[in-house]
């Protein structure tokens, strides 16, 4: 069955958009007298590269960089335009010291595209052709300068017309977009984090400096006031959308559904006002407040489906990586490892009731159920129930190692087409790691992988590796 279209979000932080990439073509004036018109010829080559990659990103092509002033001007323009990254292309050999300062001082994610106009060296080549296609040693000079400056960058060598090259640029461009969005991210935390849960704790200033997310605390009282101020039309429209989109449990009362709809709409309004692209709630912070009737379970599921990052229990690290999962690979899903199934060499994945229904099976209806829940000490929270879609999947956990040291632990595997668990009233699925449960879990635990994580459909370890390279954090595949 087709997935429902989420209610429209007014928050620009969660809108889907193509990566916006600058192309910086580098050469030098040395060859102008030798080959008249070479600058214009190579500028046209840069334009063709961008045109070829039009389906990968929105491109801004700078005029050919022929000196230090050109490089610094082009990079300032890219930064002023709010681009997500810069792909460097050697149009001829260009000395690295003319671009080193501009590149090493920029916060924009970089890729060095080691390409040349012609794919093959032929007997017809003359010295002009040698000059047009000599970018490789300019790439070596520039890469050496970036390495010596401790500047992170990705390298993409290939034939620029090939599908493989486009696929690798696409992976880097998505990673650059995710990195840029992380650096702009605000994570709203409603109340306080779960007491005693250590793997979610992080130095917030170190997180801001290293990766970019800023923590924004939202008082539960603000949610209560916002819920009370919402117009009835907002609540009615959300409930009508749910009626069209889900199989709604007849046991849910009008009061339960209206209260849930007010919580979801109130959370989203506060996130919009604070320009937060991700958030986290903790059941005790809601339950102990005394003014709420139930926990916002269904709200988390639909807000994730709209593109918000989410994590339970006040976990800023997991909320941030779910948000990055949206930007990097699409449809980030918050989950945790619940139990191991050794006979099936798999792990039962679930959480208390939150899950992105964009990863649901397509052959079963997504249900909005009445669901008893003792945690939080409140009334039954309407919960969106589904099973994960079978097929390739990837788990990723963001680990704080102290100070500004972070690690991403990644496991590829498969969501199994496993039997239903009729008593489990929360989103779930069974994940079989490529490396097997025993080896995967041994390595996960040795690497300090956390118990909250993002899941994406597809094999995404290489996508996450590129992101880690761009932000210069450790990538551990288990």
Automatic annotation (TrEMBL):
Residues 77-182 form the L-arabinose isomerase N-terminal domain. Transmembrane segments: none annotated. The keyword Metal-binding applies. InterPro entries: Ara_Isoase_C, AraA_central, AraA_N, AraA_N_sf, Fuc/Ara_isomerase_C, Fucose_isomerase_N/cen_sf, Lara_isomerase. Keywords: Arabinose catabolism, Carbohydrate metabolism, Isomerase, Manganese, Metal-binding. Residues 332-474 form the L-arabinose isomerase C-terminal domain. It comes from the Bacteria. Pfam families: AraA_central, AraA_N, Arabinose_Iso_C. Signal peptide: none annotated. Residues 191-324 form the L-arabinose isomerase central domain. One of its GO terms (molecular function) is isomerase activity. This is L-fucose/L-arabinose isomerase family protein. It comes from Nocardiopsis lambiniae.
């Amino acid at each position: 069955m087709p997935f429902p279209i989420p209610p429209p979000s007014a928050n620009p932080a969660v809108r889907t958009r193509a990566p916006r990439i600058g192309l910086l073509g580098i050469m030098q004036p040395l060859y102008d007298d030798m080959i008249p018109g070479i600058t214009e010829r190579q500028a046209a080559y840069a334009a063709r590269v961008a045109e070829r990659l039009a389906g990968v990103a929105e491109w801004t092509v700078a005029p050919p960089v022929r000196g230090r002033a050109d490089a610094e001007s082009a990079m300032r323009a890219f930064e002023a335009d709010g681009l997500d990254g810069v792909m460097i292309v050697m149009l001829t050999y260009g000395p690295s010291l003319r671009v080193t300062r501009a590149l090493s001082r920029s916060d924009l994610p970089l890729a060095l595209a080691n390409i040349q106009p012609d794919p093959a060296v032929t007997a017809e080549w003359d010295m002009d052709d040698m000059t047009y296609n000599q970018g490789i040693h300019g790439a070596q000079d520039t890469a050496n300068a970036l390495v010596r400056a401790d500047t992170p960058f990705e390298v993409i060598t290939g034939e620029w017309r090939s599908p493989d090259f486009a696929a690798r640029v696409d992976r880097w461009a998505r990673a650059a977009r995710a990195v840029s969005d992380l650096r702009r991210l605000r994570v709203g935390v409603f109340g306080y984090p779960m007491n005693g849960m250590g793997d979610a704790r992080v130095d917030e200033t170190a997180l801001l400096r290293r990766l970019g997310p800023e923590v924004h605390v939202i008082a539960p009282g603000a949610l209560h006031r916002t819920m009370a101020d919402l117009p009835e039309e907002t609540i009615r429209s959300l409930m009508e959308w749910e009626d069209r989109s889900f199989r709604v449990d007849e046991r849910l009362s009008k009061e339960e559904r209206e209260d849930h709809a007010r919580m979801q709409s109130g959370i989203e309004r506060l996130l919009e006002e604070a320009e937060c692209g991700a958030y986290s709630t903790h059941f005790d912070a809601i339950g102990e407040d005394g003014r709420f009737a139930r926990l916002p379970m269904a709200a988390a599921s639909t807000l994730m489906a709209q593109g918000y990052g989410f994590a339970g229990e006040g976990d800023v690290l997991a909320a941030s990586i779910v948000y990055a999962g949206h930007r990097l690979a699409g449809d980030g899903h918050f989950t945790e490892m619940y139990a191991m199934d050794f006979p099936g060499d798999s792990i039962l994945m679930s959480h208390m009731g939150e899950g992105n229904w964009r990863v649901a099976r397509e052959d079963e209806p997504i249900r909005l159920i009445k669901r008893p829940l003792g945690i939080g000490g409140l009334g039954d929270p309407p919960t969106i129930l589904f099973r994960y879609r079978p097929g390739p999947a990837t788990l990723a956990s963001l680990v704080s190692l102290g100070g500004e040291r972070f690690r991403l632990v990644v496991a590829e595997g498969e969501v199994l087409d496993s039997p239903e668990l009729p008593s489990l009233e929360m989103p779930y699925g069974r994940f079989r790691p490529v490396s097997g449960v025993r080896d995967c879990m041994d390595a996960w635990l040795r690497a300090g992988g956390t118990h909250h994580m993002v899941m994406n459909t597809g094999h995404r370890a290489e996508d996450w590796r590129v992101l880690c390279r761009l932000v210069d954090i450790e990538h551990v595949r288990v």
